[in-house]
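User: I'm curious whether this sequence folds into something compact or stays loose and floppy. Could you predict its structure so I can see for myself?
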Amino acid sequence: MSAAIAPAVPDLAALSSARECFAALLGAEGVVENGGRQRAFHDPFEGPAAHGHQPALVVQPANVEQVQAALRVARERGLHVWTSSKGRNYGYGGSAPVADGAVVINLSRMNRILDIDATHGTAVIEPGVSFADLYAALRRDNVPLMMSVPDLGWGSIIGNALEHGIGYNVMGDHASALCGMEVVLPDGSLLRTGQGALPDSPLWHRHRRGFGPAVDDLFKQSNLGIVTKAGLHLMPRPEVMATGTIRCEAEGDIVPLIAMVRRLLQSGVLQGVPMLVSSPPMATGSGEGHFTAENLRQVLRPGRWNLRFGLYGHEALVSARRSVLEREVAAIPGAIMELRQYAGDAGPEDVEPRDLIAAGIPNQVLLDRLKGVFGDSFGHMDFSPVLPIDADYARRTETLLGETMARHGLIGAFGLLCFPRSMVSASLVMFDAADQARVDAARVAVRHLCDEVATWGCAPYRAHVALVDHVQDKFAFGQNAMARFYSKLKDALDPQGLLAPGNHGIWAEGQRGA
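Assistant: Here's the prediction. I'll summarize afterward.
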């Protein structure tokens, strides 16, 4: 096995030569020239004096063959690459690479919807297809299927799912909604996972497993291959959907509220991924300039605790779920439930803006509100630890966030994405991205937050590119046996360590820290 090549920033001559070669293979439109266009592939919140995580060149292949060709050029010239789909992973670094000097292979030109199967509830898409793109196609052809969407619908469906992204309706676990991938491996060969390994299989995107070990998860949050297409499971368009909130005003209401959510998710009364948002009496942190606790309260939901949820399906089933939920909410003194019901085919013109996400309609309402309050230099870094679904952990995490924000002069919004047996803290650490000191303070603060929750036996489920090694090191059982296992896989598939070195803390042997 050849030794790993440490990622190095290529010199200008090597870059110029590579750019010419990429242009010959991909066409002039497949190479993003230096300047304003290439800025879109940096961390959008890196600050005016950024250091680290800098791309050297951006190429945009239009098909699988061009992805293979781009990898071949990089391999022959000893260049390391980084991949992105739409590059909208803003709270975690956007398209910025872990290692400086990467050739970013951006897949936004691979934006075809290859198939929509209304009978079996599947779609086959490329990485450049956004949530908005697929929604528009479903609406245009009146396909009786519903999507799950995250808070912002401008990003790649595949990219979000590969990062273990989360939406809110029945298919809200986006990583689990993928079924059957096509993957370009680091040596340029093509792999089809699951039933796709069987030539001409009609089940590639309908049945999750093939014969032998299922390998699909190896290509999520990893650098072992480039996913160039995938199947996606969609839910049937419901007869009706009811979306709304449960609002509690008392501090102690978090205890019965979380217990109720856990119980009703496990029993199937609640569906999808309810989101619980905190609005403490004094918003979390203090901040500076426009980034103040007072301004933060303008975008927080009313109530000390506010749970957003959705109910979906036949009208009789939604009505039955609603009745059970009303009885449960009545047992929490002072809790107020608001619920609005829509037809399953309701479009954006029919649904209140606050209900768009639960209705599976891509939008950017949250970003517009945040920029409206904090200005165009609004930046954020996300802190998203996985926690037990327990009120004590909610309180501890909110308190930790508030104390950390106050210490660093920042502000943070605290929320929880609820699952039947766990929850994910969706915390936004907010800052003025035009102020390098505030950018740096946010990174230090989130690093501290990761350290603290690790003492509870918890860690983030995703991390900013500047913190991937720090988070990976928290998974230390067996003297970091998991990281060593990842390195063995990396060495077997990519012994030169050229494909996205350091992604999620995964390095070829001897490469980390070089």
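Summary: The CA atoms of residues 349 and 356 lie 10 Å apart. The chain is about 30% helix and 20% strand.
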